[in-house]
Design goal:
This protein has about 375 residues and is mainly alpha-helical. It folds into two domains: about 70 residues, no CATH class; about 210 residues, no CATH class. It has twelve helices and no strands. α7 crosses α9 and α8 runs antiparallel to α11. The longest helix has about 30 residues. The N and C termini lie far apart (about 60 Å). About 30% of the residues are buried. GO terms for molecular function: sphingosine N-acyltransferase activity.
Amino acid sequence: MLQTLYDYFWWERLWLPVNLTWADLEDKDGRVYAKASDLYITLPLALLFLIIRYFFELYVATPLAALLNVKEKTRLRAPPNATLEHFYLTVGKQPKQSGLSGRQVERWFRRRRNQDRPSLLKKFREASWRFTYYLIAFVAGMAVTVDKPWFYDLRKVWEGYPIQSIIPSQYWYYMIELAFYWSLLFSIASDVKRKDFKEQIIHHVATIILLCFSWFANYVRAGTLIMALHDSSDYLLESAKMFNYAGWKNTCNNLFIVFAVVFIITRLVIMPFWILHCTMIYPLEFYPAFFGYYFFNSMMVVLQMLHVFWAYFIVRMAHKFITGKELGRSQIRDVESERPSSWGRDPQSEEESSSREAALCIQWLHSSTAVPCLPHCPLHSCNPK
């Protein structure tokens, strides 16, 4: 049965146009072609990336944070309280109900919630690592693609497809990019958890699938263009975040506007009207559509939908800046991670949230037979059930 599944998975009609087989892509006459076995190296490379990242954050990003005067605000720890801790862990961190409030309970929730938030230094080190990688990847991507004829004439992407040999620069560009996205997927649980956590997982998985499939089906020319396009704006966002954490607001705002412009041009103009047109329309001029054609373009559409999703929030933040509202630390975490409810949150809404939390906590405490009333509860004199 396993052999049947293996044979069906590698059936030529899934991966290659009609009348072509894997034998047509065997290395010969000094020409090297993409092979699935090439991708095995990406997993150990991903682990190497995690090791490099650890030492980079320790010996490069941390001293850089000190140089830029990245300071962590003092966070008061919530005093030990088994009852509130039980409520916090089992009922929720952000209750939505309303009712009576208690100042001691509000303060405890506020401090306890702050304890779970990642430190400013952790955010800075993560942004520094990604900035460094994305900048190097963008420069490398341009070096790999800019001298190729298909960079200027997208129809040449498909000339001779799929019998297109691979050169060393394309091989290493692919392997390093794929390994990096594997490392992001491996570390996502320990990285700063943002509000687009699910979208980030979808993005990483879709990117890995696209890279793997494009290598299997020898969509390498299109793949290198797509990777270089994506890397063109990411380093700008990470640099804006770095300066934001360092408190350089003007520099942060200016970099963010540049990032927003580059993002809109690359993801909402070049991506759909040039790259997607290249992968959807031009291939049909050279060969009939097959499963790989539909699958690859389906994943491209998923990525494009994510671009539209993130562009909406980027435009909103850019509008805030243009209309004179500063982009504070609470707003420009990762632009791609924000939701409407968290944008521009004012202190009053934070207090209302704390009151709701305290109210629900008190209601829960007084409806429970398992726990006693709190010493500082405003209803301490009442008779709990």
